[in-house]
Predict the 3D structure of the following.
Amino acid sequence: MYTCHCGSNKLYDQCCGMYIDTATPAPTAEALMRSRYCAYTLANIDYIKNTMQGKALLNFNADEARTWAQTVTWLGLQVLKVKQKTQRKAYVTFKASFLNNNGREQTIHEKSEFILKDAKWYYVNGMIK
Ligand SMILES: [Zn+2]
C-alpha cells in the first residue's frame, strides 16, 4: 500500500487504484486524468488505451507508449484547471513532470479534452500549452 502517484495524498487503493485495477469507471474527467497519469507511472498502457477514444487514439502506439513510460522517471502531477463545459464534455489543464532518460527534467503542460460516453469518461484530445 502506498500513496497514490497522482498527488492526491490518498492511498493508491482508495484513489486511482479503484479505477485502474477494478471495473469502476472514474466518476469525473479530473479523476480520469489523474488515474491516467498514475497509469503512466505504472506503465499500465492497457488502461491508457482503454480510456481514450477519437482523435487521441489515432496516433497512439501502445508499444512506444509503454517503452517511454518505463524509461522516464515520473516526478509529479499538478492539476491546474478543470472546466466542465457541458455534462458530457470537460477540459482538464495539467502539468506532468518527469526526468527523461538523459536525466533532464521535462514538463508536459496540456489542456486535455474528455467526453462522457455510456457513463464512462474518455480522453479524446490534448492541446499542448
Ligand atoms: Zn490517484
